[in-house]
Amino acid sequence: MADFPIRNNIRKLRFYHDEMTQKELAERVGVTRQTIVAIENAKYSPSLEVAFRIALVFDAPLHEVFIYDADADPHWTNKKQNKRSKRSE
Amino acid sequence: MYYLSITYDFKSITVDIEVNMTYQDTGFQQENALSYREKSLIVATIISIVVYAIYGVVLFQRYQAGGYEAADAFQFWGKAVLVLMGVLIAFQIIGQILLAIAANVAAAATGQEFDEDEVSFDDERDKLIDLKATRNTFIVWGVGFMGAMVGLAFGMSPTTMFIIFIVFMMLADILGNVSKLVYYRRGF
């Protein structure tokens, strides 16, 4: 499975919003139910537009819907290591 | 899928325990089950393999029996490729229609609603997967085309060139469908 540094609370937020189904969320956001499934299971990172629409549906800020884990992002870790190695030279 | 969280507050006289449970959506449908699109891709892949295999054998036998000269070979292979395309498209259409009928019957039998959005609506994820799979398809087809051109440059016969075209066309077609299936299942 693809390893994404971005997790989300969509499943929990759906439950707290009158037990919204994936189908209902998909219709409100403008994607298919399978895409919502993929997003919840961290198999797909949505576009900014879709991410904002999801946050709007739950009336929550983006950082409460999606959580970015910098430690799990290989690009971010590499940049930090390169800066440290350059400083030590 | 269930998760349980218990919160308690010792500041109050009474202890409140809140239990939250989630449940699987859409009639407890397994999220790991194959979606309609994934089943469609599997059907398309199987049809491609079967049609290419059978047509390849028929074509080979017809070519050997025909005894075509070099000048006739282009006409023979031109017709062969066009017929192959027509046969493949026809069988793919039939296969997808049968799959749609089977999916509707299965949904009706289990009392579930068939999600027509999966069939009629391509969202951003579907379009992105399609683009990535098309890129893979073109890479394979491009390799085959260049291989055929290199072979021609080194004196290969037109028959061999067309065989390479058809083989790589088959590989590209199958790889495209398999790529989509992998992207849908594993993510990207």
Explained architecture:
The complex is a heterodimer of chains A (89) and B (188). With 89 residues, chain A is mainly alpha-helical. Chain A contains six helices and two strands, in the order E-H-H-H-H-H-E-H. In chain A, strands 1-2 form a two-stranded antiparallel ribbon. The radius of gyration of chain A is 16 Å and the shape is globular. The model of chain A has no long low-confidence stretch (mean pLDDT 86). Chain B has 188 residues and is mainly α. Chain B is built from six helices and two strands; from the N terminus they run E-E-H-H-H-H-H-H. Chain B has helices at residues 25-28, 36-66, 70-110, 117-120, 124-153, 158-186; strands at 6-7, 18-19. In chain B, strands 1-2 form a two-stranded antiparallel sheet. In chain B, helix 2 runs antiparallel to helix 3 (70-110) and helix 2 packs antiparallel against helix 6 (158-186). The longest helix of chain B has 41 residues, at 70-110. At the A-B interface, helix 1, helix 2 and helix 3 of A face helix 5 of B.
Highlighted features:
heterodimer, A: 89 residues, mainly alpha, 6 helices, 7% strand, B: 188 residues, two-stranded antiparallel sheet, 74% helix, elongated, disordered N terminus
**What would the principal axes of the Cα set say about the shape of chain A?**
globular
Strand content of chain A: 5-15%
The gyration radius over C-alpha positions of chain B equals: 25 Å
Strand content of chain B: under 5%
Average of pLDDT of chain A? 86
